[in-house]
Design brief:
single chain; 233 residues; alpha/beta; Zincin-like; 4-stranded mixed beta sheet; 5 helices; 11 strands
């Protein structure tokens, strides 16, 4: 079997298959340019690979929608453990954003033409992510801080496109509202990563050992996080 080959998927398009002798698990990744890649360890059968792609197809399609600047239309949906954002046909009174808990619904006039509203719609989604992050993250970091015994000075929530989080020497922690796009265990990993920087300000072996105390396997979580992307406009 070649080290690299391609599969044509009816919904995901061309899927790039990469065999990696060092891989331990099958990993699907959406690159920033929309390329779908699947890394496969040795010994995985074609049937097992097809089952994996089928199981992850829905999540992969959502990621592709987020990357595509023309993807927001009536079928657009953002659904994660932290937030659900959908579009619905409403009355003729203009656009209305409804919010209750993790649910955000944008009511749109029935005759809406989304082609010239993509940037504005992306900003609406980003603002929903920011609103939800302000509801979720303060409580979450306070709880993890107390459990780990790692106090911090302050928390700020931003819309950073390049970093999930950061920590200053004073213990000021910044978290991107894009954490709302992650599974809960990865959001907690990012938070714990920054909390550990209140003790170890670099990525020395001592830092990773400290993070391992709270996450179990920080390097595996870091690898998993690399397959996700912050929200971009």
């Amino acid at each position: 079997m070649p080290e690299r080959y391609y599969i044509d998927d009816p919904e995901l398009g061309t899927v790039h298959i990469r065999l990696n002798a060092r891989a331990r698990h099958i990993i699907l990744r959406i690159l920033p340019d929309g390329t779908v890649t699947v890394t496969v360890p040795p010994g995985v059968s074609g049937e097992r690979l097809r089952e994996f792609i089928a199981k992850n197809r829905r999540d992969a399609k959502k990621c592709l929608q987020q990357l595509d600047v023309h993807a927001i239309d009536w079928d657009y949906a953002l659904d994660t453990p932290f937030i659900r954002f959908t579009l619905e046909r409403g009355g003729n009174a203009g656009f209305q954003l409804r919010h209750k808990g993790r649910d955000f619904t944008l009511l749109c006039p029935p005759d809406t033409d989304f082609r010239d509203k993509q940037l504005w719609l992306k900003r609406i989604v980003e603002e929903a992510l920011r609103t939800r992050a302000k509801e979720v993250l303060p409580e979450r970091i306070a709880r993890l801080s107390a459990q780990a015994g790692l106090p911090f000075h302050s928390l700020k929530i931003n819309t950073s496109k390049g970093r999930w989080g950061s920590c200053s020497t004073r213990g000021d922690i910044n978290l991107s509202c894009s954490l709302m796009l992650l599974p809960e265990h990865l959001a907690d990993y990012v938070i714990l990563h920054e909390l550990c920087h209140t003790v170890e300000m670099n990525h020395s072996p001592r830092f990773w050992a400290l993070l391992d105390r709270f996450t179990g396997d920080s390097h595996a979580l870091r690898e998993e996080l690399s397959h996700h992307h912050t929200f971009t406009i």
